[in-house]
Amino acid sequence: MERPEVVLENSDAVYEFYRDHQQNRWQARGAYALLARRYRARVAYAPAARERLRELVSQRRPLLISINHLSQLDPYTVAAAAWSSVLRPVIGRTRVLAKDELFLEEKLRRRIDMMGGIPVFRGKDHGLRAVNAAGQQMIDVCAERLRRGDGVAVFPEGTCNNVDPTQVQSVGSGIGHIGFRAMKLGAQPVLVSLGLSYGPRTDPTVEPSKEEAKSASFYFGVPVELPARPAEIARLVRAELQTALDGAVAAY
């Protein structure tokens, strides 16, 4: 299928494409390995988290991965952490939600596609009413990918945290609806919380440079089963992600 232009007016074709898009897994693994060498992420785990994650990966349970959002560099440092963690086997089988503007420039879009990206049309960029239908399509696509056994990685705060890098900001309802709809389709996704810290920031409105982003601290919380309702999932996501962020800050 020909790759559609990623613009809001074309959302039907966009999500039809990304419902089935599969990147070259070996190319993705090579890119993640390169990013791991470049950014040298440091990865730690809550007690029993590493063993539980290995078990879930071996069982091919779909993972709903929640990560706090601090910088435009996060997708690259998170990729570095994935390669350096027990998530390495799911590289190439994990979808990553990314804002639509990253898909506009052809060279960058190829990178995002290779990393498993799915576009998100955000209300803050286009208006809440304008993106409603596209948002429902995005949630349906993510739920379907989880049903098929893929993982889905989400920055549930929706935008970079320029307030306090040690505190998870408001979590949108989208991740709750993704988990809920996946379970309605018969999937059994597990929530994996991954905290990220670039260390103390004297000014949280200034993002870290590429050099400052090296050796970021990542911390995996213990994976948990999802509750039944979208709002309950969203509340759980925020609580679990804060615990993981506390671990990343402490381990920096």
UniProtKB/TrEMBL annotation:
GO BP: phosphatidic acid biosynthetic process
Species name: Nocardia uniformis
InterPro entries the record matches: Plipid/glycerol_acylTrfase
UniProt-listed PANTHER family: 1-ACYL-SN-GLYCEROL-3-PHOSPHATE ACYLTRANSFERASE
A Pfam family that the UniProt record links to this protein: Acyltransferase
Official protein name in the record: 1-acyl-sn-glycerol-3-phosphate acyltransferase
Record lineage: Bacteria, Bacillati, Actinomycetota, Actinomycetes, Mycobacteriales
Residues that span the membrane, as ranges: none
Residue ranges of domain Phospholipid/glycerol acyltransferase in the record: 63-199
